[in-house]
Amino acid sequence: MQRRELRVILISLIVSFILTGIKFAAWFLTHSVAILSDALESIINVVAGGFACYSVYLTGKPKDENHPYGHGKIEFFSIGFEGAMIFIAGCLILFKAGQFFFVPSQLEKIDKGLWLIAATTAANLLLGMFLLREGKKLSSLTISGNGKHIMTDVYSSGALIAALLLIHFTGWSWVDPLVSALMGILILRQGYQLLRKSISGLMDETDMQVVEKVIEVMSVHRRPKWIDVHNMRVQQYGNNYHIDCHLTLPYYLELSEAHDELKVIEQVVNKSFTSGDVEFFIHTDPCIPACCHYCQLADCPVRQHEFTGLIPWREENVLPNRKHGE
Asked: Given this model, what pLDDT does residue 1 score?
């Protein structure tokens, strides 16, 4: 899987490098600040792509004594770095747009620049769609983040093409810095979103979609001896997950029986996460009389209360550190 991720990122890096050169050629031809803004953002694509290559390489390294959970956290550094670079590019673009509002430049050869930008936009659209598809398939935050950045470039380039067409047919040169400023704001927003995702990952913010998926899988395969599950926490390391929780089992089970129940949980959850591994750390809790009313064990030899109804597993009773009904 790592080889495939590296191949995908290298394709992105090479294509971005070529397209950046074409955009700068368009800027030299036209002297358009909007085209310069687009070219500056593409430089970020190249720099971020290089960092992403290293990130994917490091993520694929096996666990060691110094990194017992693996090296997957580097992906959050990668998208944070990319977000910071995008944010800086947005600031530079806004600065250049402000300059050209007061000291406009003479635009030249708009038609040729238009064709060059249209070609790079089409290439970026294909690249962005490819990265988003591969990022989802490989559960790679790095590739997905790179794909979102490329798609932002596509949207801004689309606006740029519309602006160049307007300038070409009307001669309104003031549209050039205006579009550049709008592109800068869009780029700032994308940079902020990537930075926010990076900080969330580094701070181990709970990914509720993953929690919901784990709860759903465990609920579908729920066995009578699994009385309740609570205090669930999920951490992501690259495309792998570390999950710990408390599982309430009948207190009279032998250690080997309890171990078998835990292995079943690990197997059914790992089968549902086909693009990565799930490592479970499960703490077993003994049942108490208060559990009897929702315990499904019909032949329980120590039951003190009748079964009154199953308590479904949901976020509100799986995440807190307490048995159901307490």
From this structure: 57
Q: Which amino acid is at 285?
A: D
What count of residues does the chain have? 326
Nearest to 158 by CA among 112, 121, 114, 109: 121
* Closest to 263 measured CA to CA, from 226, 220, 310, 300: 226
Q: What pLDDT score does 114 carry?
A: 80
pLDDT of residue 247: 93
**Using CA atoms, how far apart are residues 70 and 62, in angstroms rounded to an integer?**
6
- Show the CA angle centred on residue 76, arms to residues 70 and 81, nearest 5°: 130
Give the Cβ contact number of residue 164 at 10 Å.
26
CB atoms within 10 A of CB 269: 18
Give residue 37's identity as a one-letter amino acid code: S
Number of C-beta neighbours around residue 21 at 10 A: 14
Ordered by where they begin, the domains of the chain are 2-202 (1.20.1510.10), 208-318 (3.30.70.1350)
Output the pLDDT for position 32.
75
How far, in Å, CA of 166 to CA of 185, rounded?
21
Give the span between the Cα atoms of 278 and 240, in whole angstroms: 6
pTM for this predicted structure: 0.57
pLDDT at position 131, please?
87
CA distance 284 to 191: 43
E strand or H helix at 66, and its extent? none
Q: How many CB atoms lie within 10 A of CB 321?
A: 11
110 and 164 Cβ atoms separated by less than 8 Å? yes
Cα 187 versus chain centre, distance: 18
Intervals of the chain under pLDDT 50: none
